[in-house]
Design goal:
Strand order of the largest sheet: 1-2-3-5-4
CATH topology of the largest domain: OB fold (Dihydrolipoamide Acetyltransferase, E2P)
Shape: elongated
Structural class: alpha+beta
Number of strands: 5
Radius of gyration: 26 Å
CATH architecture of the largest domain: Beta Barrel
Strand content: 35-45%
Number of helices: 1
Length: about 120
């Protein structure tokens, strides 16, 4: 009888522990999804002038006007791009409209660059 009671108790403990683990994993997944949703990269737009293009490092140096949505004054800075293809037709001295996203602390990436006339 002790063995049967022990077996039932062990079975109940194992299944309840597994159920708690699954519930915890589902909760973690939902929490991570909410954090991801909250951190969806917002697009910010700016206007500037291309100074230098570095295809080897996937960067573009631009002098841009203020970007109010980021609270940035006008400045000159290097931007990383995720897709080097957006740099291929650019030339220094070109006036451009660009879009930048923030993907974490000090992680800004240009996602689109459109030459202006």
């Amino acid at each position: 009888m002790k063995f049967a009671t022990f077996s039932i108790a062990a079975f109940l403990l194992a299944t309840s522990t597994a159920a708690l683990a699954v519930d915890h994993m589902q909760h973690m997944s939902q929490t991570e999804m909410h954090q991801t949703d909250a951190h969806v990269a917002q697009t910010h737009r700016g206007h500037g002038t291309v100074n230098k293009i570095d295809l080897q490092h996937n960067t573009v140096n631009m002098t841009h006007g203020p970007i109010k949505s980021l609270g940035w004054p006008g400045m000159t800075m290097d931007f990383k791009v995720k897709d080097a293809a957006i740099l291929k037709d650019l030339k220094p001295g070109q006036n451009v409209m660009f879009e930048v996203v923030n993907e974490g602390p000090r992680r800004y990436f240009v996602t689109h660059i459109t030459p202006q006339k």
